[in-house]
Every structure is written in C-alpha cells, then in structure tokens.
C-alpha cells in the first residue's frame, strides 16, 4: 500500500446530479459524500460467498473473496485489493485522528478506510474496512 494524496482524474466522471439519479440515497451518502453505514447492518459484513466485489457506482472490480476475513468489526474486511491500481488512498483527519481513506480509482467513490498494525493474522497486516453499500458481489460461477 502506498500513501497517495494526489488527485488524479478518475476514469469515470459524472456530475453529482447524475450520481444522485443513479444511486439510492444511502449509496449516494456513502459513495459520494464519504458516509459510513452502521456496523453489522450491511449486506456483506459476514458473507462468505466466493466471488468478486466491484464498486457499486461504476462496476470496477476491487476485491476478491479470497482476501476477505472475519474481523468482527461489523463491516466487510479485506487484507488487500484485487490490484493496487484499483484503489487510491487519501489521508483523512476528519474525526480528529489520522486515517487513510480508500476510494475507487475508477470513479473516485468513497469505499471505506484501511488500517494497519491491528494484529490480524493476515498476509499484509492490513484491514480494508469497506462499506457493504459501496460494493456489489458477483458470486463465482461454477
């Protein structure tokens, strides 16, 4: 993971009015306004289905189920994205603490945050804490 605060032009660009028409109010709040769904309420927080998680706004593939793990935090947790170029990172100090926001690299939608050094036994020692409402799961076929 690299800490990036540059603001490259994302690949999918729409006006906020267009996003409001395409997304439900909750999806818009999380994806476009940087909101957070309540813990233990999202569709995927405890899902164990094999497949690929894509951005709910633009469809870009972000995470694979093989990297999802039970962190018991109430949100889906992954130890790495499908590829580093699928997400981008922004320093977030909005709650009086330093966090790293994770955004979709294709459409610049807010996904969640990534944390390190929490002691999870994962290959990367990272926890991508991602809102269920920001993703859509395509179950593995066959």
Automatic annotation (TrEMBL):
Q: Name one GO molecular function term.
A: metal ion binding
NCBIfam families assigned: peptide-methionine (R)-S-oxide reductase MsrB (TIGR00357)
> Gene encoding this chain?
msrB
Provide GO CC annotations from the record: cytoplasm
Query: Which ranges carry the MsrB domain?
Result: 16-140
Q: Give the Enzyme Commission number.
A: 1.8.4.12
Question: Per the record's keyword annotation, is Hydrolase included, yes or no?
Answer: no
Q: Which reaction does it catalyse?
A: L-methionyl-[protein] + [thioredoxin]-disulfide + H2O = L-methionyl-(R)-S-oxide-[protein] + [thioredoxin]-dithiol
| Protein name, entry field | peptide-methionine (R)-S-oxide reductase
A Pfam family annotated for this chain is: SelR
The record's section on InterPro entries has:
Met_Sox_Rdtase_MsrB (IPR028427), Met_Sox_Rdtase_MsrB_dom (IPR002579), Mss4-like_sf (IPR011057)
Annotated coiled-coil positions are none
Keywords assigned by UniProt, alphabetized = Metal-binding, Oxidoreductase, Zinc
Required cofactor(s): Zn(2+)
Return one Gene Ontology term, BP aspect: response to oxidative stress
Enzyme class, first EC level, given as a word: oxidoreductase
